[in-house]
Amino acid sequence: MMAKIPQWRAAADPDDLREYDTFGPWILEVTDPADLPRRFHPWWPELEGARHLLKVPRPIDRAKIKPGMDLYESVIAVFPDTVRVLRAALGDSDVSSREASRRDVVATIMHTNLLVARWTLLLADGGAMEIEYNAVSHPTIAEVDRYVLSGGDGDATPPARAATPPAAQPRNHFFGSLVLALNSGAADRVQPVYVDEPGQPCLNERGRRRRSAGAMILASSRDLVIIDRTRAAEALFRRPNYGYNVTRVPFRRITSYEIRTPEATAPPSFGALVLRCDRAVITQAVLTPPDAVADLLAAHGVTSAR
Length: 306
What we know:
By secondary structure, the chain is α+β, with helices and mostly antiparallel strands. The protein is 16% helix and 35% strand.
């Protein structure tokens, strides 16, 4: 007995039905004009040569969608020389476009909080480009992130390896699992060089007693990687915190660094590691002096601002 096709499917436009059938919270690769959402069709001639061409869905419950709905809010196009992000606001007929040279991308931040994720490109002029997405597509964005920060298609030879400080192994299970995740399938592995274990007594910026949220700094032959829990200090009584940031900075993009030392207090206050990448500034709170990180930066030829 043949299954009866519902009337709404029979009446739907084939392209709309195809988009409806493949829609979900995941980011999909665009390989054909038919894969590009209808709102973005006029842009196809400018996008078809992209190394990575991705469409990012709106945060809509699949049970509430119908064929022909405006399901995708942005398109990411990464070319050998540029990164372009197209956005289509819901209810707005216009599509906005923003573009940056890959040479101007000095660092990236991948934020995750359960299923909420955000990819931020930090630019040399101090600006930023942000794309929000569902965390189920983390592997897809991670692959694009590695390509954007690489030196280009011809940059296959690793740079001369600076002397790496002794590894600082995290005791915290969360940080340990992130080390394994970052190295899974990675050609250029990272190793921890500095760890602020979470839960240490500390003072926040107002001088109030708190416990540290924890942070970890890792390094590969090319990049410095900073992991934080979105804030430096937590309340004394445990509250769930599922958010974290992974900031990746190629050593070649760091123009200078500074270590800010706080006044001596009991319990200790936070200092800061400050990285300058042209006009972009990355500041990471640290509870203990990151001497190993300073030595590593100096070994890579990065000058101290002090």
